[in-house]
UniProtKB/TrEMBL annotation, chain A:
PANTHER family: ABC TRANSPORTER PERMEASE, D-METHIONINE TRANSPORT SYSTEM PERMEASE PROTEIN METI-RELATED. Residues 21-215 form the ABC transmembrane type-1 domain. GO terms for biological process: D-methionine transmembrane transport. PROSITE patterns: ABC_TM1. Gene3D superfamilies: MetI-like (1.10.3720.10). It is found in: Cell membrane. Pfam families: BPD_transp_1. Signal peptide: none annotated. GO terms for cellular component: plasma membrane. This is Methionine ABC transporter permease. It comes from Pediococcus pentosaceus CGMCC 7049.
Automatic annotation (TrEMBL), chain B:
GO terms for cellular component: plasma membrane. It holds the Pfam family ABC_tran. Belongs to the ABC transporter superfamily. GO terms for biological process: amino acid transport. It comes from Pediococcus pentosaceus. This is ATP-binding cassette domain-containing protein. It catalyses: ATP + H2O = ADP + phosphate + H(+). Keywords: Amino-acid transport, ATP-binding, Cell membrane, Membrane, Nucleotide-binding, Translocase, Transport. SMART domains: AAA, NIL. Residues 2-241 form the ABC transporter domain.
Amino acid sequence: MGSSSYFDFSSVDWAEMGSATWETIWVTLVSVLFTAIIGCLIGLLLFETKDSKSNGIQVINWLVSLFVNVFRSIPYIILIVVLIPFTNTLVHTIVGPVAALPSLILSAAPFFGRIVEMSFREIDQGVLEAAEAMGASHWTIIFKVLLPESLPALVSGLTVTAISLVGYTAMAGAIGAGGLGALAYNNGFLQYNGTIILVATILIVLFVFVLQWIGDLLVKIIDKRVV
Amino acid sequence: MIEFKDVSKTFETKEGTVHAIKDVNLKIDSGKIYGIIGYSGAGKTTLIRMLNGLEKPTTGSVNINGVAINQLSAKDLRVQRHKIGMIFQHFNLLWSRTVKENVMFPLEIAGVAKAEREKKALELIDLVGLEGKEDMYPASLSGGQKQRVGVARALANDPEILLSDEATSALDPETTDEVLDLLLDIKKRLNITIVLITHEMHVIRKICDNVAVLDGGKIIEEGEVLNVFKNPQQPLTQRFVSAESDPSHQETEIVLDELLNKYPNSRIVRLTFHGDQAKLPIVSEMVHEFPKVDLNIVAGNIKQTQEGSIGTLYLQLTGPEPQVAGSVNFLKKLRVETEVIADGK
């Protein structure tokens, strides 16, 4: 496979490339959505159960921590394999983009959960106390103080998570989940078509750039801490 | 009426039990500004936080208008807190909200309807002098303006009590006075009770009606501000008072030493005037009475408190002994607090 094979654009099936790109985009977006929701719940659980004096709550904190640490430490490629039975029960298939979702979410949500917990902990304790002094209930504090005050940190954390999810999506593609990763591997690498690898790579890089740009823009809009 | 009854508070730490508050008994009348002064670690933060239940006493009870705050259920305590505003040293505003939204926050918590919230917030923003800044974010405000937002926010639910937790300690002297004037103005207009804690006697002198001095978790002295300034009993109180009423104390000492070296036969007295005395021509009367006495003013100042003014004056008196002694007696007779600090003999 010489260097010229990277620029033979006539060998690219653009319709196929387009549908693979779309697959990568929606698989990433759907898993980002679920990761955001589940990650916020995990982060909130970790934050709220930390430093509790009650034994029961300490056990919850320990269990959630354990879950987070286990899923964060398993390499993604192994996680896919480990999760095959679970995926099968959940979505009734182990190939295709839908089958990639459970493993993608389960690997990204704990990671994002830690980011959420950290973001919550960075909020000034005094602000939480002020809300308490005003007679705010626990849930009011969560929805009106914790979430809005940590929103810029949550959005930039989610951007980082989304970008690593793009990488995972490509990896999942290589073992049958479709998308640009699958295309680059099956039609590019296995069939000695460098152009497809190049185009798929460029598209993934562009996608990552766009995600980062959207994330930065959102943070800029919502962050009111700087004049 | 706020009442602390035999209140003690202990914390369990790794180093053992810490007695933060020891047997505090305190009555605070409605409509007053009550100041609690002490160095950091004296327990004043713990004490003020008991008033809105952020801290619970280990023993004793904290009553506000007959309601024992420390015995309320979590839900009742939240309702009670709507009627207790609090301002903080570091303002504790939500940066993600505009000035108006910050002031509306306690109203949201209390479940006030949206239109009502807006109206009340705008009123309060006017009250604290922040017209035109409704839609700005805290990050673009100065420290004094942030504290004004804090004050407006604390007043949102028409509280009966306003707690001030070192509210001016992070501000420069000029802004401190601005915020203090605002608090005084608010007390007069809304007739609410203000309980404040501070480590600056200046704050106490400027706006408080009553003061309690807290040391090591105990109240060592308590009373009307003017009385405490006039006649501080405890060494710690004396230190607070002299640091405030006589900021140039050390300089004065140096000048006095020099004068004594130069005129070993002179006598130096310190006069302390209170209230109306400060307005009387006492010194000139003395001069008329004892024309042979030469008089040299070494140092002097006058300060305003809520109940009247307090002045100090250092005088050097020289002349024939009977005349000098007579003039000192004359001053004492006029009930000016006269202290002979150097006898010159």
